[in-house]
Design brief:
The chain is built from twelve helices and twelve strands. With 328 residues, the protein is α+β, with helices and mostly antiparallel strands.
């Protein structure tokens, strides 16, 4: 999967704000952005395409951001932007609503209506951070009138469905660069369904959310749990089911449309992490059995067998071919 992460330090200080402003206007929507930090603007922006879903991650000093009727007429991607706030407080007004957001809050805004937003100086060294999930307006199976009532309202993303979605977005933003294209598309589907379920609950339009969204929401939680616990050798289908208050039979039923079983999913993700570590410079001197143990393989011999079965080459041969070092 293609992931681009950019930092304003790639250009001269006096050009950083203009560079970042143009980048965000292209990736998010044409926007009038002003700042008191134009002389040197330390900012970042990352973009990830997850199948039909797009994610933008950014950080920036205090700004004012305005989407005017003229800019909407000029270009409108017709998206809802579901945003997780991570840094200093932000403020936004749209469609007669107004919200002041703190770190951990979720907020929704639309590219099709004027808005006025600001990143506020203060905590977190005055740096605003946000993860934006781009959701096409026409694709949501929810009443537009109900969704629009949510614009410029903040929801704490700490508990309930908001907490589930917030943790999922953080996980995706952190791990997107490790995903292959096919895996990225599956994560995109899970992200879309989870966001739809969250908005349907928030908008009191649960009856319009497709029935399968509940299963996909649970799968998104299970996927995140698996990724977070790959290093634990006790990670098994039974342990996953117990953590999510499911029977093992129900867990396997949730995976019925996937190409891999639960156990195969765990094994393949562990192997992928090991494969990446075997060619990483920072692990070049780490013995292969230690790399394997780091990702939940308790037997060096068993790890070598499953690695060869998966990739057609032993871990030692793979590391040597890739120019690495280390001993079994």
């Amino acid at each position: 999967m293609s992931v681009t992460v950019l930092h304003s330090a790639v250009v001269e200080p006096e050009h950083r704000f203009e560079w970042w402003r143009d980048l965000i206007s292209q990736d998010v929507a044409p926007t009038r952005i002003t700042t008191d930090h134009a002389e040197d603007f330390p900012a970042t922006a990352g973009m990830a395409q997850l199948g039909a879903v797009r994610l933008t991650v950014m950080s920036f000093p205090a700004i004012r951001s305005e989407r005017t009727p003229a800019l909407i007429r000029y270009s409108d991607p017709e998206d809802y932007q579901l945003t997780l706030i991570r840094g200093t407080e932000m403020w936004i007004t749209q469609d007669r609503n107004e919200a002041r957001m703190a770190a951990g809050d979720l907020v929704l805004w639309s590219t099709s209506l004027p808005f006025d937003g600001r990143g506020l100086a203060g905590s977190h060294d005055g740096i605003s951070k946000a993860i934006i999930l781009h959701l096409p307006r026409t694709g949501l199976p929810l009443p537009t009138a109900k969704v629009d009532r949510l614009l410029a309202n903040a929801v704490p993303g700490r508990t309930g469905m908001a907490g589930i979605l917030a943790r999922h977005l953080l996980s995706v933003a952190e791990d997107a660069a490790q995903l292959e294209e096919s895996a990225a598309a599956r994560v995109g589907i899970a992200t879309w369904e989870l966001a739809t379920a969250f908005l349907g609950d928030w908008a009191d339009a649960r009856d319009r959310v497709p029935p399968e969204s509940g299963d996909r929401m649970r799968l998104a939680r299970i996927d995140a749990f698996i990724d977070a616990n790959l290093c634990d050798p006790r990670l098994t289908p039974a342990a996953i089911a117990a953590h999510h208050h499911l029977s093992v039979r129900t867990l396997h039923w949730l995976f019925r449309h996937r190409e891999e079983t639960v156990a195969a999913t765990i094994r393949h993700r562990r192997l992928a992490r090991c494969r990446a570590d075997l060619v990483a410079d920072r692990y070049a001197a780490v013995p292969i059995h230690t790399v394997a143990a780091r990702w939940g393989f308790t037997s060096a011999a068993a790890f070598s067998r499953v690695f060869r079965r998966e990739y057609g080459i032993t871990p030692r041969e793979f590391r040597t071919t890739a120019g690495g070092a280390g001993e079994e």
